[in-house]
Write a structure and sequence with these properties.
By secondary structure, this protein is an alpha/beta fold. It is 30% helix and 22% strand.
């Protein structure tokens, strides 16, 4: 199985907020864009909260994130996976999130987009946050940035796959909106 490589971060160069997903879908990798699958709800949710069109060109959406002080990245730098499901990810290698945070001292809030992002974050960087519930906010002291406290929130995945509690983007919007406010 081939090793898949993710993307570099986009958005603000000096972010206050860092949103971390798991790993790009097949459609995203083909397009070379975060959340490139037409049914993923990420751009619709963020567009609703930040006031941009989710159908705008990718560069405009990335600029809207930058203007809002948001950077977007994935926890997983590379992995093996057949298809797009997070459950199929094998041999994952994490991005250097700790070094990113050490180099970006303005980041004060970190969002984990879905269960796989939360699990990978706990596995690679913050085992004490292993049981972080959806919507729960916790303080994290990154070992790479002594004395610093970052607020971490696990948000409902923007995947179009419905769950028991989050069937649509409208169900997810209040938590995403509260985090980004």
């Amino acid at each position: 199985m081939a090793v898949l490589e993710g993307f570099a971060p986009i958005g603000s160069g000096e972010p206050r907020i860092l949103i971390l997903g798991s790993f790009p879908s097949v459609a995203s990798l083909e397009r070379g864009e975060y959340y490139g699958h037409a049914r993923n709800q990420f751009w619709g949710i963020l567009g609703s909260v930040l006031g941009f069109s989710p159908d705008a060109p990718y560069a405009e959406r990335a600029s809207a994130l930058a203007a809002a002080g948001i950077a977007l990245w994935d926890l997983i730098a590379s992995c093996e996976r057949e298809g797009s499901l997070d459950d199929a990810i094998r041999a994952e290698r994490a991005n250097p999130i700790d070094r990113f945070l050490a180099a970006k001292p303005r980041v004060e809030r970190l969002a984990l987009n879905g269960g796989k992002a939360a699990a990978s974050f706990a596995e690679h960087f913050a085992p004490e946050l292993k049981k972080l519930a959806i919507g729960a906010e916790s303080e994290w002291r990154p070992p790479s940035a002594p004395g610093r406290i970052v607020s971490v929130v696990r948000l409902p995945s923007t995947s179009p796959v419905p769950t028991r509690d989050y069937r649509s983007a409208l169900d997810k919007l209040p938590l995403w909106s509260a985090f980004l406010a």
